[in-house]
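Possible regression after last week's pipeline update?

I re-ran a chain I had predicted before the update to compare outputs. Posting the input and the new output here so someone can diff against the archived version. Not blocking, just want to make sure nothing changed silently.
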Amino acid sequence: MEVARAAFAADGLDLPVREIARRAGMGTATVHRHFPSRADLIAAVLAEQVTRCEEEMRAALADPDPRRALRGTILRFAERQVRDRGLNEALLGSHAAGTAFAEKRRAHAEAFALLVERARRDGAVRRQVSVQDARVALRAIASFRALPAQSASAAIPRLTHLLLDGVLSEEQPR
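New output (post-update):
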């Protein structure tokens, strides 16, 4: 699973099972014993990714500091756009494998809205910034994964910090 996740993240979901097996140092038949079809392997990798995102979102919602929770969530989202390009294309794009996770994506979107609203109530988000504005920021970050990998690796962190500066209010001295 770890090799498949890394391979799909870097090279996309069209990567053949034989290449994943080669990278894992095993035969294709061994992979097929655990995952009868390529679609089963893809679904397992995507499910693992979605579970990781759910755990991170639960931790963010439990964080007593709304600014830190929202900032960390946006930074982790941006990191995944660089690190997990192929997986995110499926989960956030139009790849058929991602459709099975539509309900979980909606739940993530609702949790993100709660994070933004909580940060707004706390004064951590600029008054004029809405949940929709914060979602636009995420879409802007995600759109940069279409750049060549090296360009995306440089541009996504820069864009993320610019957007955070625009979304978050000036930090109050404690």
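Follow-up from reviewer: compared with the archived run. The first helix runs from residue 2 to 11. Marking as no regression found.
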